[in-house]
Amino acid sequence: MLRTLVTAIVLIINLPAAAQLTLQLNWKPEPQFGGFYAAEQIGAFKKRGVDVRVEPGGAGLPVVQMVGTGRVAYGIVSADELVIARSRGIDVVALLAVYQTNPQGIMTRADRGITQLADLFAQPGVLAMQKGLPYALYLEKKYGFGKLEIVPSPFGDLTAYRRRKDYAMQCFVTSEPLNAAKTGVEPRTFLIADSGYNPYTTVLVTRGDHLRASPDEVRHVTDAAREGWTAYLADPKSFNDAMRKLNPSMDEQTYAASAAAQKPLIETDQTKANGIGSMTADRWAELIAQLRDLGLIKSEVKAAECFTAAK
Fold it and tell me: I need a labelling partner for 307 at 20 to 30 A (CA). Which of 45, 201, 218, 271 fits?
């Protein structure tokens, strides 16, 4: 009996440690990723037997390709990136979609008097955005850019916004408008989702072959992320404090305001009924149709293959 027990203990001690898995973000530590950092902080990954490191990203990081080529096991992308990637033969699959309402918006100065997004395209002015992105092509097709001067995105810099009354810029409604209000020049922000283009974003993805080869691991990572987001949405402060050590460029008040602004974009009737991050085939099918209409995909993409509905 004693020898058997000792042998069992030795075997347990000598078991190889679980390989560390990378969850690659597409931007810096900010509230839009709060639930993933919360999952680390509360031990949601470890208690499920998975060792996950959340890795910050930055502008232009090709996360969907990094996941698709196996450089990282998990990543954060937008739903339209995923559909386009799948149309090009990159087998990435969505596991959880944090933002049910896409936070991408257009911000201009409130003193322009514009009350709806269509009006911004109906009068002369400057619009700073990344041309060629799916939402930009959608807006161009729906409203036309004929009266606007399109210039490169300032990526958060508000210099031109403060100087020019006729200036508008792409933004996340959880970020730039909060900083703009601090300048004393009140912003007016319009969600692009309200115009009809609303892809899921902050989407947790993995490779299709990884999902098929390691379904238990994938489920554990997804469940841990969901637990982390539940904790973050309930009380973001301690998790914001931890992220501020990694990204001190935002002050405490902005972290708190951003967390509050994003909450209704994440928690919806859909997620209250089916869980944080839940997705539907209808939403994916609508996005696929929009991207095909914009000429961004030509090969067949099936909605049911874009995501897994397992909880």
Answer: 45
pLDDT tens by residue, 89-132: 999 999 999 999 999 999 999 999 999 999 999 999 999 999 89
How, if at all, do strands 148-151 and 104-109 pair? unpaired
Tokens of 15: 């078991």
Within 10 angstroms of residue 36's Cβ, the number of other Cβ atoms is 28
Question: Residue 182: CA atoms inside 13 Å, Cβ hemisphere, count?
Answer: 12
pTM greater than 0.90: yes
Cα of 2 vs its chain's centroid, Å = 53
Q: Find residue 20's DSSP bridge partners.
A: 51
Alpha carbon dihedral 295, 301, 307, 310, in 10-degree steps, equals 150
Q: How many residues does the chain have?
A: 311
**82 has a pLDDT exceeding 50:** yes
Handedness of CA 58, 38, 48, 82 (dihedral sign): negative
For 232, the 3-state DSSP assignment is helix
DSSP-derived secondary structure letter, 273: H
Cα 288 from Cα 292, distance rounded (Å): 6
137-153 in b/e burial notation, b at 16+ Cβ within 10 A?
A: bbbbeebeeeebeeeeb
CB 164 within 8 A of CB 108: no
At a CB cut-off of 8 Å and minimum separation 6, what does 36 contact? 23, 25, 54, 76, 204, 225, 228, 229
Other beta carbons within 10 angstroms of residue 209's beta carbon come to 11
Q: Using CA atoms in the order 189, 192, 194, 196, what is the torsion angle rounded to 10 degrees?
A: 170
